[in-house]
Amino acid sequence: MTSNVPQHDPSDGPGFRPPARLWQERNPTWMGQVQDHHYRAAPEHPAGGSHPGPQPALASALRSAALPAPGGRSAGVVLLVAGGGALAFAGLFLVLPYLLANTGLAGFVVGFVASLIPLTAVLLAVFVIDRWEPEPKRLLVFAFIWGAVVSVAATLVIQPVFAMAAAPPPGVDYRTFALTVQAPVVEEFAKSLGLLLLLLLARKHFDGPVDGVVFAFTIAGGFAFTENILYFGSAIAQSSTPGADLAVAFFLRGVMSPFAHAIFTGSTGLILGLAARRWRVGLTLGAFIVGLVPAMILHSTWNSMGQDFLAQYVLVQVPIFLLAAAVIALLRVAESRLTRQRLTEYAAAGWFTPAEVSMLATGRGRRQAVRWAKSFGHGAQMKSFVGSATELAFIRQRILSGRNVAEHQRDEQQQLRRIAADRDALLH
């Protein structure tokens, strides 16, 4: 079956103007803005514009091409993971004794187990947010370890220095200053430093606000996990009524505010994700500084709640949480629209059918496709096809942004081959 969509020369470069409908819709969302001079054609399908289908010769050639995954283990990612692991190992020698000194062994064990409950809630949120275009597991592990160990160790090192450099203003006691200024500044800097490293060293996997939120939530979840061990364990070790104090601490931190740190650091991740669309080092560093401001303010606001805690929680913190949820929902909608548009451009070049694009661009369509494929034992192949197509859409977005075009075009070619092989696996 041949396509009735106007075709173009594969050599078309920047400035190429595709069919009118594609040109008008090239910016389907604020997440995917493309400058006119950066727009270029999607590469033609080898079949010469036909819609994809069973092509044994091509499929055989693709299966024999053992290509690495696009954006694989780059030097930056290897450095990031190895360096993060080394820092975490060293940080344990500071964090673990600190926790045990404040909780005791029994308190540490109870705190560790209790802290798994709010951590699970945060990681489930990460899973839901990250389902559309999942981040590499090794980077998520780095993010969690950075939050749980490295950022905590950095906080323990920096806090005394900050205390010597910044004294409380007249009329403010040190405890209030530490809660409302020192902790927000030091902790948010320590957590967000991991985000900055991810953006600088793993750029292919941090190319938008959703990625920023995913990594930020994971780092914050790790930090809150360790902090909860301290609070829950201290309620056991330093109280004459450990059961009651543990219940209060768990209700306040595990039930009422499991996402507090995630929302604080998430604001930094969102801003860094927006800056990632430009890929300029100066802009990235500026976004890091700017992104710390709302995180520190939100953190300070939370720590400032006192006797009227319940009223402030209902009137301030709950609306902030709902706003964060709404922003995440909008980001997911934007991802879906961007995926549809970029895959539509590949469909015009013969790589997908319109029905496939419709299926790949909605969560419902994907779920139905996987269920259908599972009915004849090809669920894994369909999941691979869906994941490959989604990654392809985001690779094209990177190409159209005008940054590192040649490198991303190589990734594009590898991903197109993988998609053709995935389709062939589904047909056999």
Concise summary:
The protein is an all-alpha fold. The chain has helices spanning 20-24, 56-64, 75-129, 137-165, 174-201, 209-237, 242-255, 260-276, 281-304, 309-348, 354-360, 363-374, 379-400, 405-427.
Please give the structural blueprint.
Elements: H1 20-24, H2 56-64, H3 75-129, H4 137-165, H5 174-201, H6 209-237, H7 242-255, H8 260-276, H9 281-304, H10 309-348, H11 354-360, H12 363-374, H13 379-400, H14 405-427
> How large is the radius of gyration?
24 Å
Number of domains: 2
Q: What class, by secondary structure content?
A: mainly alpha
Order of helices and strands: HHHHHHHHHHHHHH
Gap between N and C termini, in Å?
A: 20 Å
Please state roughly what percent of the residues sit in beta strands, choosing from under 5%, 5-15%, 15-25%, 25-35%, 35-45% or over 45%: under 5%
General shape:
elongated
| Beta-strand segment tally | 0
Q: Please work out how many helical segments DSSP would assign.
A: 14
**Uncertain regions: pLDDT < 50 for 5+ in a row?**
1-17, 54-69
Note the main sheet: none
Task: Give the mean pLDDT.
Answer: 86
Instruction: Assign a percent range to the helix content.
Output: over 70%
